[in-house]
Amino acid sequence: DFYPYQYATGEEGWLLYPFWEHYLVTGDTQFLKNRLYPLLKDMGYFYEDFLTKTDANGKYIFAGSVSPENQPANVHVSLVNNSSFDIAGAKFALTALVETCKILKIEQGPGKGLERWSKILNKLPPYLINSDGALQEWSWPGLEDNYNHRHSSHLLGVWPFREITPETDPTMFKAASTTLAKKDQFDYGSGHGYLFSALVAAGVNNDAAVNAKLLHLFKNGYYFDSLFTSHNANHDIFCADVCNTVPTVMMEMLISSRPGVLELLPALPQMLDKGAIAGVKGRNRVTVQNLSWDASGNSVICTLKSDVDQEITLIDRGGIKTISGPSKVSASPLGRIARIVHLPAGKSTKIIMMLDRLRASADSAVPDPARPLLSQGKTVTASSVRTQDGDMGAANAADGDEGTRWSSDYLDDQWISIDLGAIQKIGEVKLNWEAAGAKDYEIEVSPDGKSWTVVKSVANNAGVGWLNFPALAAKGRYVRIHCKTRLTEYGFSLREFQVFGD
User: Fold this and answer.
1) CA 219 to chain centre
2) pLDDT in tens, 96-139
3) What is the pTM for the complete model shown?
4) Beta strands, E only, 74-213
């Protein structure tokens, strides 16, 4: 079979995870003992039988492994070794099994299940990072990644398993973020491709990517008039994926949870300056009874209710200036982005936080009211526009919509320029690069669109997403990004080009 699913052993972990979530939400040990443990134990027995071969480093080989439904770029078969999908599934299943044995106080002692399954867990192969700095889809030498695919199966460690976070593994977290950026330069095609990648985007705190994917679904004919949805764009194939999963995407971009941790607004899109959500259960026995935010004051207000007396690490990556409400608050080893708060059992605790800034992600561009945005909606021109992939016009870079972009021909030495309409003082430029960005480029200004002055040079850039260039202290009517060399084999691709006054 082209997709030999009988070898996609990570599927079982994927299927069992919602049951583990049920336990994390409820703390129901009877459910854990009678319903979930027997299934997890069968997974332990399976991996004892299946994982028998080891590599030179003593790590197990998933000999016969699939990453649904993709293939390596350089090997035109699906059945290979060590897909990250299968590794992630095994890590979750075995970790949950070991944790269950400890909670239920079973399978203890020499040679018992806890010891055997822990040994297997410790010998699972690691994820690998490829030459692009991305998390490899197959942790096996010589297999090259194919980013142009609707599935993001190898990012299960980000979502739903939450194995990869900035706190647990910052190196792999950065690699997963790079993987998403590489895949985002292509069309995911089906609704489920955009949905899963949006969930991953929320998991890597990429608010711009979440926003772009939601807008794609809303703007490209995935919804019927009845609000039921289709599998593909333009109302092609009746399918419930989108209508059932968009609410989950919205929850995940506003509230992320795992045992002992509650993160607020992890990937809040820039356009949502004010809003609220209520009645969300956390994977830590905490209910977010309500959560509201307001960009005008960089404030967040939430009411939390815990089933048990516990201390929770409360995170907002915008940076917490002040926090009030809980009876006990202490500093967190994570620094300014977090506080440790005490939540008494069964009581509603109202928390008010003032933030350094509302948006959570480090690369999100937040308009500063002291510096007016001069560029949005102004006339934009470019040296070239790639038309083969749809609307890639220069105006897309100044429309305020991170779901659109300008893309040049597949050539070096290209440019994009904004006419501000009159000579202005220029204090800051913010660029939101797609994965197909510029390696070397210059920011230039001109009074007449003919003679140009370089105000910022960038060399060997590897960044994607938002990059900020403050304190330019420049003056001109025209601002141009002169893209000299490409970061990829494709053209230069810019989602947003913002110019702010001084």
Assistant:
1) 21
2) 999 999 999 999 999 999 999 999 999 999 999 999 999 999 99
3) 0.73
4) 80-81
